[in-house]
Every structure is written in C-alpha cells, then in structure tokens.
Amino acid sequence: MPAPILPVPILLVTGFLGAGKTTLINHLLTHAAGRRLAAVVNDFGAIDIDAELLGGVADDIVSLKNGCICCSLQGDLLQTLSKILRRTPAPDAIVIETSGISDPAEIVRALLDPVIWREAALDTVLCLADAKHLTDDPALLDDPICRAQIKAADFVALNKTDLADPAAMRERLRSLKPDNAIFDIQHGQFPLDLLFDNALHQPWPAPRAAPRFSTPGFESTTWTSPVALDLGRFQTVIGHMAGRLIRAKGFVQFASHPGQPMLFQYVGERATIGPAPPQTATGEMVRLVLIARLGRLDAERFASRLVACRVHPEQPRTHEVAR
C-alpha cells in the first residue's frame, strides 16, 4: 500500500530588518540533510541569497519583488505555492521569508485556509530577533511591527547572542512570549530538529521507538493507541501539557468522527487539527510525537493522561481527564 500523501509543511520566517533571516535560511538550505526544500523570498528590501551557495541544495528558489507578500503580493505567493506543489517530486518542505517591515498576520491567516492547508500546511512561524540591535535600541521592541512579528511567531529566535547578553532581552520578550518559545541562537543556527524532523512529517510504516534527536537539550517520546480518542478530553489534555511541550505532531482519530483520520499539530502556543489522508495500516488509530526541552518531558505522566482520552465501545464519551 503506498504511503499517504501528507500536506507539505511550510516554515514562515519573519523578523525585523537585519535580524538575520537570510543567514538562517542559508543555514537551513545548506544543512537540509537530504530534504528537498523550496524557498520563497521577498525582495522588498535588501534581500540577497547567494545563488552559488544555494545551487543544488534547494529544489526551487523563488524571489517575489516590488512588494510585500503580507499585503500586495499575497496573490502572487499563493500562485507560487501552487506551482511549487506541482513539481515532481514535490518538496519535503517550503520555507517562506517575509519582508522585515511587514506584519505577518495576514499571510498566517491565508496559509491557515482549509483549502491551502490540505496541500501545504503552515507548520511553524519563526521570528528572528536581533539581540544586539534590541540591546542597543530597547525602544525597538515597542515598535508595532516588531511586536506584531513576535506575537505572530510560534518560536522566537534571539539571534546574535554572541554579540550581546541576551538575559535582559529575554526578560522583556517574556511579556510577549512564554519562555518555552524563546531560543538563544548564533549565526542563524536554529535547532533543525524542531523544524524539519522527519518523525514529525512522515507517516510511520509500523510501530516504532521514539525518534532520536541530534540537537542537545531536547527529548522526545511517542504515544500510540489502537482505539479512538474523545475529542474534548484530548483538547483538555493538550491544554494541560502546553506549558511543558515545545511541539507535538501526529495522526489522531476521534470517536465522534469514525473513519476520519486527523492530522494534529501543536507548536509554540498554536494547536491545529485538520483532515489527514488515509493512513498506512498499522493497527494504531493514534500516533503522536511529543517534544520538550530536556528534563521537561514526563513521558509516563503524559501517557497516563492520553490513555484517559481513549474511548472504548462500551465507554461513554465524557470530558473527564487524568490529572
């Protein structure tokens, strides 16, 4: 039986001018580890991706010029995505860079459209923040566009921490984002396992062990169930887990929608549930990957709460959960 076709995950990269977006995208494309990546960059300002550096690394580099994809070029972006998705073979992921002077909220809303989501699902919104620039000019964090970019993000990467002490800036960022969503990085090197880990984006052909992480400081576990879950209880459990998890993803079937597999994703503070294609037969109705910072993942406690979400044929569907 062929593997089901999943939506191609989209990484949206935002951040103020000079924060390091291009450096981060270069890093992603040159450390793709065999993944086929397509990149869409917005040449509204001083955007320059070295074609020689990227040659042979990404399947497609598309430059949208003379406007901002968050407003005047939004139609062009959607047309571009459609063309990229028709490539053979399709990319494993698409990276989109927004202009440094734009609010990404509109493009986020566009990418969450159910029709688009079936083919290209918004996976992660990553905001680059320049630690040195914010330290030298603290008022920048009060700029409406800068604040909008941070608020729209699932993860905030505090870049250039080798040039400035990030402690004070992290304290200010906590007023906009939980500490769990803030990462200190240098030279655009964000933990790639949190963006493009194969365990999160590919179906499991058979029961498997927890994925292994190459990035220090993180741990993961998997959880499966041969029976469907109660939707209300599952949503409550995810709410309880939210403070510890960095991200989670997997396939879920709910008793209220028999025979309809769903693709679940939790990243930062955003959770989405949408239709998934029929899955490869494994005997499991639920297969989840859960990721947290090292020492924050209580796998046994998480498992006990998820077990309480199971619905057996003789069991009434209630909204009680294990605590």
Core attributes:
single chain, 323 residues, alpha/beta, Rossmann fold, Hypothetical Protein Yjia, Chain: A,domain 2, 2 domains, 7-stranded parallel sheet, 5-stranded antiparallel sheet, 12 helices, 12 strands, globular, disordered C terminus
How is this structure best described in words?
Helices cover 27% and strands 26% of the residues. It has helices spanning 21-30, 51-54, 74-85, 105-111, 114-117, 131-136, 144-152, 167-173, 193-196, 198-201, 231-241, 299-307, and strands at residues 8-15, 37-43, 58-65, 93-97, 120-130, 155-159, 182-184, 218-225, 245-252, 262-267, 270-275, 286-293. It has a seven-stranded parallel beta sheet with strand order 3-2-4-1-5-6-7, with helices on both faces. It has a five-stranded antiparallel beta sheet with strand order 8-12-9-10-11. The protein is globular. It is an alpha/beta fold. α2 links the parallel β2 and β3. The model is unreliable at 44-59, 63-73, 205-210 and 314-323 (pLDDT under 50). The protein folds into two domains: 8-195, Rossmann fold, CATH 3.40.50; 203-307, 2-Layer Sandwich (Hypothetical Protein Yjia, Chain: A,domain 2).
